[in-house]
Specification:
The structure holds two protein chains of two kinds. By secondary structure, chain A is α+β, with helices and mostly antiparallel strands. Chain A has five helices and five strands, in the order H-H-H-E-E-H-E-E-H-E. Chain B is of the alpha+beta class. The chains are: A alpha+beta, B alpha+beta.
Chain lengths: ~150, ~150
């Protein structure tokens, strides 16, 4: 990854152009041709640096609700439980963290009832007590990693 | 208008005219698709159209969830201060969950532990919140973008 790649990534993390020839625009802003911009973005994707390029959605607006959950799972069971949680429809994030509640995940569904029922199933199956931390107010959502 | 989001890929094709390529498949023009996406942005259903990176591969290897106990009348101010740090990707006021007293949650990213702790120290200083906890991630089991495909 050279300086031009970094410039491109900083630019398109912020906004991928909504124009007919987006790579021309990216090229203009980074001092290269559209063709080269396209080639570089393709390579960054192939190298696994870019995960995807596309719309970043606001789930609430689309009629979905999500809950952050924290749960304590014994070390001996954590991989199994974590895999099961990751496989659930609507789970977008799932991390093992330090602390007493050592597994944290986000589950998104159309209704809170569907979320509750998925969580109740998990609790029953593994003898867990899942704590729910629903959101009350959003102050910031913006993932941007300056390179 | 939201239906269009189910009909275009979550991951755009990397070609010279990506909007034309996607629009063709659903029988509209690239210009129309761009127009719809702009409207969805204005509406707020699309926060932005952008690239999402595998941040661990661009050396942001550390992420910490820091939780803060803010006084009810100080949440607004603290939330704004926390959000002002570029290293903070998410900041929410959340329910205490019947578990603890922390009501402000933030995700902090850094290239190492010290970078994250430095940001957390600055947040504590600027907000005046001394009661907080930090939980670094140990293992990532899943991290995907929210999508309305296959639901």
């Amino acid at each position: 990854m050279d300086e031009i790649d970094k410039k491109i990534l900083n630019l398109i993390q912020e906004e991928f152009p909504l124009s007919e020839r987006p790579f021309e625009d990216i090229g203009k802003k980074t001092g290269i041709s559209g063709r080269e911009a396209l080639k570089r973005v393709k390579e960054l994707k192939e190298k696994g640096i870019i995960r995807r390029i596309g719309p970043i959605l606001e789930r609430k607006k689309l009629g979905y609700t999500s809950v952050l959950c924290g749960v304590h799972v014994d070390d001996s069971a954590i991989v199994e439980v974590a895999r099961e949680i990751s496989a659930l429809a609507g789970v977008t994030h799932n991390y093992e963290r330090e602390g007493e509640l050592n597994l944290w995940f986000t589950i998104t569904k159309k209704t809170i009832g569907e979320i509750d029922s998925a969580l109740a199933d998990l609790e029953r199956a593994h003898g867990l007590r899942i704590y729910r931390f629903p959101e009350k107010r959003t102050f910031k959502i913006k993932t941007y990693f300056p390179l | 208008m939201y239906r269009i989001l189910e009909r275009i890929p979550h991951d755009f094709p990397i070609v010279e005219r990506p909007y034309d390529a996607m629009a063709k498949k659903i029988g509209i023009s690239g210009k129309e698709l761009i127009d719809i996406l702009k409207r969805l942005k204005a509406d707020g259903a699309v926060r932005r159209v952008a690239s999402v990176l595998y941040y661990r591969r661009v050396s942001y290897t550390h992420n910490a969830m820091a939780v803060w106990r803010a006084a009810d009348d100080g949440i607004e101010r603290a939330g704004r201060i926390i959000s002002s740090f570029p290293q903070v990707s998410h900041c929410y006021e959340r329910d205490r969950g019947g578990y603890w007293g922390y009501n402000l949650f933030s995700m902090i990213h850094g290239k190492n532990l010290q970078d994250c702790m430095e940001v957390i120290g600055k947040i504590s200083e600027k907000t005046g919140i001394k009661d907080f906890q930090v939980f670094f991630s140990k293992r990532e089991f899943k991290k995907i973008s929210f999508s309305i495909h296959h639901e």
